Amino acid sequence: MKINSMGKSIILLLFFAFNSINAQSGKVEYAIRVHEIVNSDNPEVQSMLDKMVTLANKQKFELLFSTVGSSFKIVEDMSGVTKYEKAMIKIAKAANTTTFDIYYDQENDIQYSESDDGVVIKDTNSRKNWEITNESKTINDYLCYKALYKRNYIGRFGDARVDVIEAWFAPILPYRFGPKNYYGLPGLILELTDTKSTYLARKIDLQQNDIKIIFPKGKTVSKEEYDKKLRVQMGM
Q: What is the spatial distance between Cα 120 and Cα 226, in angstroms, rounded to a whole number?
């Protein structure tokens, strides 16, 4: 993480936050706003794309965090949902948000990603090199600062690509967690813009008692193994 004068000021604010907030854990509910809209000349295809965006915008995610780590999961109510709608929801998740439940073991610095089909990916190199800026705004009455993370990856055709992830975190909430696999900032992330969607904190519930975070157990595959298999499936 790059620490400039702004970063040092935030760390000082974080010190005072630790001494003013006694809560050990908490729960945050995030709403979704899809910002990458795909258009098609085919009316039937466009109707399906619009349906996926509508379903994605109805999604809610829940972040639980404690002294040991965090979990990030979608909050779903599948009662009365048809088989077709379930399939559309799964596609909407894959296209706009995530199909994984994500856990962060803070004590051991390990990330686990559990897919719908039970595959658990273990990542021991998930730290992000955030750049904290001096831009600020208020979210849910909390003063937040903007941080950027540049994610480098190889595209489908072997070309080098970079996505810029934007996070707004609140130093007065001294918890280093956030949506999906984005964490490590000196404050709770209340808004995060990924490549296709923005996650917006709607409810924040801080608790004195430590919430129990249960990490996935059983067989895991490394992120390197999973990424290699994915590239083979995509013909890369």
A: 10
